[in-house]
Amino acid sequence: MARPVPLAWSNLAHDRVRFALFAAGIGFAVVLMGVQLGIMNALLDGNTLLLQALDADLVLVSPGRPALLFPDGFSRRRLDQARAVDGVLSAHPVYLEYQVGEVRHAADDPAGRGPNRRLRVVGVDPAAGVLDLPGLDPGAWERLQTPGTGLFDRRSRPAADPRSPGETVFGPLAAGGTTELAGRRVALVGGFDLGFDFSTEGTLVVSDRTFGEYLREPFAPSAPLADVSLGAVRVRPGADVEAVRDRVQEVVGRDGDVLVLTKAEMVARERAFWSANTPIGFAFGAGVVLGFVVGVVICYQILSADVADHRPEYATLRAIGYPNAYLSRVVMEESLILAFAGLVPGLLVTVGAYRLLAELTGLPVRLTPGRVGLVAGLTVAMCLASGLLAVRQVKAADPADVF
Fold it and tell me: Do 9 and 350 touch, CB atoms closer than 8 A?
């Protein structure tokens, strides 16, 4: 029996306006899901930007530090033990401070200065190359070796009422300028582009020497750098990272005070904390679910109306011997056509929305291939679910309706 051209397909092919409206309805659901996913991942990614900038294969962290914001550290001696493990190339300390690191507003005129604000202060050895900061000014690490200097984040939280373009809540930050960190003068010798997150409005990078002198000596004068926030470990070329991780964990973690993770595991750990302990995951996850449900309703209405318009034709096909399986396949194929017709324009609009959100908020809103695949998968599942609901009407088409 020759396969006829389904009248529903023919109608969609000739009625371009109607088909465009159908695609727009599906595209709306695609944009809704894509934007919700983008904002959720941007908020979570923002809290991992510093970890992603670590030039390390393994990260040592205290088990009592579930996120970077917390103060728990471990003894610097653990890094010496890690360096002695087979397969380890280097191990360097990274110091973090979120509470004591208060900076003065950088405006030259005291009358134009806002209140002092806390930010994240990172202390590293400038010669170690532990951080691969995006957009870092050339020669900044060499200049940072001078005591009392710092590198500022150009993408710190923007000022609510900036007096000049690009001004941050910390004032007009620029290379060659000065401010005060914990009440002591610090010269700004370079900038980078990192960004703010839930826990901090910006980042200041200083040398470990400056970090200890400014932030630790007032509280631990005898050994200001004995307590390490993170350990950045590089493995030797060709070595198995996970095998080295296990060996390092066995040596330095035997007392339970150090956890050894790969960089990817550390990033995932940070994301999981903020997702589980803030409304991010629930609120925007619910937005994705809402977009999916809206898409199912829209697609079902489209398919249901189309099936109702051609109920006599479906009944005729049943009368001449076409089984329910064939008619159901016609509806499912139509649902897939709708899925791909709405997916392409929906993704194009989503890309534009991502760029606008990134520009307006400063958040790292990115449409990665994995996220494109997730949105595409949700769109196809959404339309197939609608098709399964609409199939019931096709099966109910009675050949007696033709007469």
Answer: no
Q: Alpha-carbon distance 378 to 209, whole Å?
A: 51
Q: Give pLDDT tens digits along the chain (403 positions).
A: 445 544 444 444 455 666 777 788 889 999 999 999 998 888 888 889 999 999 999 999 999 999 999 999 999 999 999 999 999 999 999 999 998 888 888 888 787 788 888 999 999 999 999 999 999 999 999 999 999 999 999 999 888 776 666 688 898 888 989 999 998 999 999 999 998 888 888 999 999 999 999 999 888 777 889 999 999 999 999 999 999 999 999 999 888 899 999 999 999 999 999 988 888 778 888 888 988 998 898 888 888 887 777 777 777 777 777 787 888 888 888 888 888 989 999 999 999 999 998 887 777 888 889 999 999 999 999 999 988 888 887 776 666 655 5
- pTM of the complete model beyond 0.90: no
